[in-house]
Amino acid sequence: MNLTNVMAMNAYSILLLMVIYNHSMKNPEKNNLQQKLFVMMLQITAVMLVVDVLSRFDGNPGSIYPVINQAGNFLIFLLSPVLPSLWLLYVHFQIFDSEEKTRKLLY
User: Fold this and answer.
1) Alpha helices, DSSP H only, in the chain?
2) Which of 22, 51, 55, 102 could potentially form a cystine with 75 if both were Cys, beta carbons 3.0 to 4.6 Å apart?
3) Are the C-beta atoms of residues 92 and 47 closer than 8 Å to each other?
4) Per residue in 4-22, pLDDT tens?
5) Using an 8 Å Cβ cutoff, are 93 and 102 in contact?
């Protein structure tokens, strides 16, 4: 896939995430741990989509593209474990319904 296709798909995905985010912000239980974890997962996913575009910059060796590509690759590998960790905390809270235990795991 070329960079334009990746940018278009990621922009569409970010748009969908924004719709879900806006809908979830209308929830009256915004301060609930479950809601906070869900919103954090949405935000991290959006950030990872932007970083994914940066990690796709391959090009002329004399330009700044290799630096952007390296930075994007570094960030995508750095952020990769964050989303599954948040998902595990979210599932833990769903199963055990104990905010105290889930907060201990968070820290």
Assistant:
1) 3-25, 33-54, 65-79, 82-96, 99-106
2) 51
3) no
4) 898 999 999 999 999 999 9
5) yes
CA 17 to chain centre: 10
Query: What gap in Å lies between CA 57 and CA 61, rounded to an integer?
Result: 11
26-50 in b/e form (b: 16+ CB < 10 A) is eeeeeeebbebbbbebbebbbebbe
Written as one letter, the residue type at 76 is: I
Q: Are 106 and 82 in contact (CB under 8 A)?
A: no
pLDDT reading at 50 higher than 80: yes
Amino acid in position 85: S
Q: Residue 70 corresponds to which tokens in the numbers above?
A: 């390296």
Q: Report which DSSP code applies to 90.
A: H
